[in-house]
Amino acid sequence: MRDGRRYVYANFFPPNASDADDWRTRPIMVCDGGPWFFGAEYDVTAGRITQLAFNGRA
After folding, report:
1. Cβ distance 35 to 58 under 8 Å?
2. Chain-wide mean pLDDT for the chain?
3. CA angle, 44 as apex, 8 and 25 as ends, to 5°?
4. DSSP class of 17
5. pLDDT tens readout for residues 7-26
6. pTM above 0.90, yes or no
7. pLDDT for 19
8. Strands (E), the chain
9. How far is CA 9 from the centre of its chain?
10. 57 with 49: CB under 8 angstroms?
11. Whether the Cβ atoms of residue 38 and residue 21 lie closer than 8 Å to each other
12. Are the C-beta atoms of 33 and 27 separated by less than 8 Å?
């Protein structure tokens, strides 16, 4: 919740990422992973993605 609106934040990464087997219980830590590692913020009320952030350069 932020300013009375519901948001969902999700991290995305390729299935062959290191430590990907533990993604349900541990965060995937990556430095400069490029476009294959990114996060997205979804505004539930508006029904749209409001933020998109990539992890470093490819």
Report:
1. yes
2. 86
3. 20
4. S
5. 999 988 888 876 677 888 88
6. no
7. 67
8. 7-12, 34-43, 48-55
9. 6
10. no
11. no
12. no
**Both structure tokens of 44:** 């539930």
Which residues are CB-contacts of 29 (< 8 A; sequence separation ≥ 6)?
19
DSSP three-state, residue 21: helix
Tokens 């992973």 belong to: 33
Is residue 19 within 8 Å of residue 58, measured between CB atoms? no
Residue type, 20: A
pLDDT value of position 45: 92
What's the token pair of residue 7?
């948001």
d(CA 51, CA 2): 14
Long-range (24+ apart) CB contacts under 8 A made by 11-17 are 11/37, 11/38, 11/39, 12/37, 12/38, 12/39, 12/40, 13/37
